[in-house]
């Protein structure tokens, strides 16, 4: 069989949500750019978030245990980018979960920017993005990717930041 006859077609997709947070960018980053967000969503959006290895920097691996109804019970994600200066963090699924159902990439990115409409610096813009690639033969599974997890993370993060004053 020649290489050219191998089916390598994939579907790509991106979802994003953006919201204004009523806290300075540095405060939002202290939650979303660290392991703290895992603690905040554990027991709320997810059953558990466990650190497999690492300290929150690039290479950190987390095991996310999902609540029933997702189609899989857990997966591991690895922090592939933690840019403290630009306040950008990326994590990719590296084991289980989406990879077990035909995805070749499932990445979440957190980006925090100063609010351009706020001269006081008391609020910021948080953008959460999900990017994915799925093999053509598993294309139907792309429907499992929604913006609901992003909305959930935003809601929990806002609530956590407001409570922590």
UniProtKB/TrEMBL annotation:
Matches recorded under Gene3D superfamilies: 3.30.530.20
Bet v I/Major latex protein domain segment(s): 13-147
The keyword Amino-acid biosynthesis is annotated on this UniProt entry: no
Gene Ontology CC, one term: nucleus
GO biological process, one term: alkaloid metabolic process
A single GO molecular function term of this UniProt record: protein phosphatase inhibitor activity
Pfam families: Bet_v_1
Keyword set, alphabetical order: Alkaloid metabolism
Family of the protein in this entry: Belongs to the BetVI family.
Protein name: Bet v I/Major latex protein domain-containing protein
Source organism per UniProt: Centaurea solstitialis
Lineage of the species this protein comes from: Eukaryota, Viridiplantae, Streptophyta, Embryophyta, Tracheophyta
């Amino acid at each position: 069989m020649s290489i050219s006859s191998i089916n390598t077609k994939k579907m790509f997709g991106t979802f994003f949500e953006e919201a204004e947070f009523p806290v300075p960018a540095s405060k939002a980053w202290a939650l979303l750019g660290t392991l703290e967000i895992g603690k905040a969503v554990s027991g709320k959006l997810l059953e558990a978030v466990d650190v497999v290895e690492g300290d929150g920097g690039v290479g950190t691996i987390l095991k996310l245990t999902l609540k029933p109804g997702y189609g899989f019970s857990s997966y591991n994600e690895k922090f592939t980018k933690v840019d403290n200066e630009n306040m950008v963090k990326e994590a990719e699924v590296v084991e289980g979960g989406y990879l077990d159902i035909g995805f070749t990439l499932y990445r979440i990115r957190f980006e925090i920017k100063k609010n351009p409409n706020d001269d006081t610096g008391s609020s910021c813009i948080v953008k959460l993005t999900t990017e994915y690639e799925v093999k053509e033969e598993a294309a139907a599974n792309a429907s499992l990717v929604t913006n609901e997890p992003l909305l959930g993370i935003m809601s929990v993060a806002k609530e956590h930041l407001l409570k922590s004053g």
